[in-house]
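Supplementary Methods S3. Input chains for the assembly prediction are listed below.
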Amino acid sequence: MTRVAAAIEVKDKVVSPRFLKAIKDVFLGIGLWRIWFMLGWQDIRLRYRRSHIGPFWITFSMALTVYTLSILYSHLWKISYHEYMLYFACGLLSWTFIVTIVTESTNVFSDAKGYLLQIQIPFSVFVMRMLVRNFIVFLHNFLAIIPLLVFYHTELNWHTLLIFPIIALIFLPAFTFSMLLAMVGLRYRDIGQFITNIMNLIFFFTPIMWLPTNLPQHLHFIIYYNPIAQLIELMRAPLMGQLPSEHAVVTMIMLFFVSLVLMLWCFSKVRHRIVFWL
Amino acid sequence: MAQIKLNSVSIEFPVFGLSAQSLKRQLLRVSTGGVLGKTEKQDLVTINALKNVSFQLNPGDRLGLLGHNGAGKSTLLRVISKIYEPTNGEISVHGKVSALLDVAMGMDSESTGYENIVIRGIFHGLSRREIKNKQDEIAEFTELGDYLAMPVRTYSTGMMLRLAFGIATSILPEILVLDEVIGAGDASFTKKAEERIRGMIQHSKIVVLSSHDQSAIEKNCNLLLLLNAGEVKYFGAVDEGLKLYEQGLAR
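Predicted structure tokens for the full assembly:
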């Protein structure tokens, strides 16, 4: 990381210094993995302090939701329990991961006020902390659906292993998008509330509880142009032993580049003002 | 070489009222084509926390900051610690800065004393082994004994302060920035804390400390900066500056 910082220093005269400082913040922050890893773990520990099963409450709550609701909904949709259960579980797992990242993003910097006003520390550290925290939650949620994966092992094949590189890839847009939301959410405090509300709505417009086949053909644009639905497809498909659609991959890559450009643009402009907004 | 150089540094804080921070205002401004723009500008109150501050500190300098509440002492400390970037002017700081603005930063009440030592150590970029080495020294200084293996929430306020102070002062920086920490702790601990701070001050290359305690500045500093309403009123030798400050107080 210091080598990156040094290389940036050399180019300092060529490109705008504000842009370079923004880039530097991003890389230095990611390099401070000891700090964000520790903070992420600490968040989980604090949330479940003095509870006997601790973070396994996450697992329990996921299991409870998945195993009860899939019985109810398979009856509602009049499809076989076996067909529905794995689909619903994998979808909900992916949704929970994505939605908590999006909604928690807007509070990342205000939650870190205590640190940001006391020491000089890259802003990106706190976005990474939030991502790690949610990855730990994801792993606990994942435990809940392992019995399903074992039970329906006939559905599994080598595509299932794709989940690991896909999660790694999803971290790219997750990081850039969260940085962006963290800045905007800090400056405009209404954004956090707005996003929470919108995400609640998006849940119903995303095939998690319902199957894409339930939707009439002329309404398929709801899924096609819904980036969240595409991200979920990207995670759910391998878990169910399928290859994710090309469209889902393209959507993710586009999300990454759009949010990367927007994030760097905003961050270069406002990085030095962020502490004043706390 | 450690050095701090401020060149007409100003800090202007935006103060967001309920009206200015909401998105509605901004959207309205866009949709009405800037008619509301004028009132918007007037709504945005700013505070000039620092105005045209210039000075230079070289190795060996120990600077004391004096000023009334709201004079801009903490803001200046944050500028030197590179937390605030100047709105106007330039600052260059060479050397690793360690700011002791809040001794209890990052303390986790559910973790044990030992774990808190690790947390703080990681923030300072120490490896696990370096932290281990510090642990015994901190344990000895704080005199907390077996309590260090207990969650911090079981500590009394005084014990908590001891631990926080012990951890925060265990790392020797090139440039030390202190905010009102001298004399922290209960009576029996104060003397020990003072000694430790003095040791830190002696071993750092540059020290900047703000305090209301004039004797602390007299004892530890060779330079004094008087701040009033964000402006430098005096920068120079300590005894002369203290005289000025007392005159100002008498008036």
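Residues 14-277 of chain A form one domain. Residues 14 and 219 of chain A are 50 Å apart (CA to CA).
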